[in-house]
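Subject: Protein record for review, amino acid sequence with backbone structure tokens
Concerning: The relation between a protein's sequence and the shape of its backbone.
How to read it: Take the token row as a discrete description of the fold.
Enclosed: The protein record, placed directly beneath this head.
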Amino acid sequence: MEELKLLGKIVIKGKIKALTGLHIGGAQGNTEIGGVDNSVIKDEEGKPYIPGSSLKGKLRSLLENHEGYLSATKLVLQKKGAEPIRIHICNEPECPVCIIFGRNHGKYTLADNQTELVISNATPTRLYFRDACLDEESIKDIKPNLDLEWTEVKFENSIDRITSAANPRQTERVPRGAEFCFELVYNVLREEDKELFSKVLTAMKLLEDDYLGGSGSRGYGKIMFKDLAVYWKSREEYETGNFSAQPIVMGSLEELMQKNIPQLLK
């Protein structure tokens, strides 16, 4: 295994703004009698939030697509059966997806369901995701108009093409304009990782032109990243406790992508 040592951490803080209604589904147990059919996930205070796992899964899948890994020979079966889950994993030493999101030892079956892949060069995950909590101020003005305390309810209908029977349903959504405070932590374990950080920003930009959560093809889940600030916490700062409170760069996602961030990591 390659020798790795923590050189520092890049921390991105900012907000995720819902530009259209956002639906990230909650557990079935959240459904109440008389409640909506499809509820959103909520925290212990009953407020909607964006799980770090949802953000991680979406950014990973978009980066896999961007790197050209969506083929039967580059995907493995994470879950087999009638509804398989396929993700990319490989032994390529410099694969950006495997380095950023981590790679475990083990035997896998490629998505062609025939070929076995043995992963022998495990590497730790570089990118950590925090749950993104709702900024209550962001929906203060529209809160009186919401159907529920923190969310809206969208009514939809599907029609059977033979019988014309209607199948109405209700879907709970976070309203347009809601903002969530998010944080990503990128571990730099070798000098080459500094250059790979640009892939994280690329995945974030891809997400802005895709969707988060469910029903993206029906207008849900368009988001934007805003008020971004990037902090660098070096190995020396962790040893001395003398952390800089100032970000190394601030601005929009486009402005961050145009900066040469690796040169700012001293």
